[in-house]
Write a structure and sequence with these properties.
heterodimer; A: mainly alpha; 2 domains; 0% strand; B: mainly alpha; 6 helices
Chain lengths: 233, 131
């Protein structure tokens, strides 16, 4: 009885803290617009600090806030609306986007393999790093296929998304990208879900292209996985 | 005031909350379907394809889900916060291995983003020239 109500209270507490920190980070970001003020950096940092300071384990935290992470599902479905509204742009430019996805996916897998080998990281860690440039469910499936650890890949995917979205904002300031197509592909390929969210803040067209590129990249990686597994022997 | 149950439903459909619930239902259906068939495709992606098909065939109007979709997409960064904190459970990354992993991710991501954007931008300009 007491445990049950305690659980509900804990869940409520951490949910309010998470949403509150995010809301405050958004206000701060609207005021300063710097890379460090991105809600993707400020919110996890402040919530993480509270989790550690209050001696709550991650297991207890995620139990109460799992529903927030689950909202990613309905948000993925929501991509259908901008995709539908920008179907003309996509119909006109799909070969260009596909070229970008092929380049980006090859680069992602290739650089992870080369850099991890060069830095002497263990094989399982290297395999877990390789599929990190797609959204979590795709990446976890590929990771298992090529001998990585899916739950480690999930963490790497998120670090990639967070750093990619933050770096992307910084890089867009000096990259000479004339088309919304390139700006969308840039964020969708490099930072998947977080990049798509960032792209939606830049513009609706960028957002829908980033969403499409992310989905294409997921499918591309799934198809490449058997080939990569074969090459790694 | 409300002339019929249908009119009442139309009114309700204009609220953000109901639209989000509708998108949630599509995700749930997609998730159940993906599990049943054993597809390695996320349930959200299946739900998205379902919504796209319904929009394309005219069974669903964009205006009846647009507000909910905009809200979800605008606040998407929030949904990442709980998952990012999973790093708290991976103490083995405090130290050299962690630094190496972060280096691989950062350098790799910058290269991925630059090469993708350059490919798309160059193809775009080439096509614009030769169109």
């Amino acid at each position: 009885m007491l445990d049950g109500s305690n659980g509900v209270l804990t869940a409520l507490f951490w949910s309010v803290i998470t949403i509150g920190c995010y809301a405050v980070a958004r206000v701060i970001h609207a005021r300063w617009r710097a890379w460090w003020s991105s809600p993707l950096i400020l919110a996890p940092l402040s919530v993480g600090l509270l989790v550690v300071l209050l001696h709550t384990g991650y297991a207890a935290y995620i139990k109460g806030t799992h529903w927030i992470a689950l909202m990613m599902g309905p948000a993925t479905v929501a991509f259908a609306i901008p995709l539908y509204e920008h179907r003309e742009t996509i119909r006109r430019h799909w070969p260009v986007l596909l070229a970008g996805v092929a380049m980006g996916s090859t680069m992602a897998i290739g650089t992870a393999f080369l850099l991890a080998s060069w830095l002497d990281l263990p094989t399982a860690l290297r395999a877990s790093l390789m599929p990190r440039s797609t959204s979590t469910p795709f990446a976890m499936a590929v990771s298992g296929d090529i001998g990585g650890l899916p739950e480690l890949t999930a963490v790497f995917v998120i670090i990639t998304g967070v750093s990619g979205a933050a770096l992307g904002e910084l890089m867009l300031r000096w990259m000479p990208l004339r088309s919304s197509l390139a700006r969308g592909a840039f964020l969708g390929m490099g930072a998947h879900g977080a990049g798509v969210a960032k792209a939606h803040q830049i513009g609706e067209e960028e957002g829908s292209i980033a969403g499409l590129v992310m989905i294409l990249a997921g499918c591309f990686n799934l198809m490449m996985a058997p080939l990569v597994a074969l090459m790694m022997g | 005031m409300l002339k019929s149950p249908l009119a009442a439903f139309r009114m309700l459909q204009r609220t953000r909350f109901v639209q989000i619930a509708m998108l949630g239902a599509f995700w749930f259906a997609g998730d159940v379907a993906a599990r049943a068939v054993g597809l390695p495709v996320p349930g959200g992606v299946l739900g998205m394809i379902g919504v796209l098909v319904l929009l394309g065939t005219g069974f669903l109007k964009v205006s009846s889900v647009r507000l909910g979709a905009r809200t979800l997409l605008a606040e998407m960064l929030l949904f990442f916060v709980p998952s990012v904190l999973a790093i708290l459970d991976h103490q083995e990354f405090i130290g050299t291995v962690g630094l190496k992993v972060v280096a691989v991710i950062l350098v790799g991501t910058v290269l991925v983003m630059t090469s993708t954007a350059m490919t798309v931008e160059l193809c775009y300009r080439w096509r614009a020239h030769h169109a």
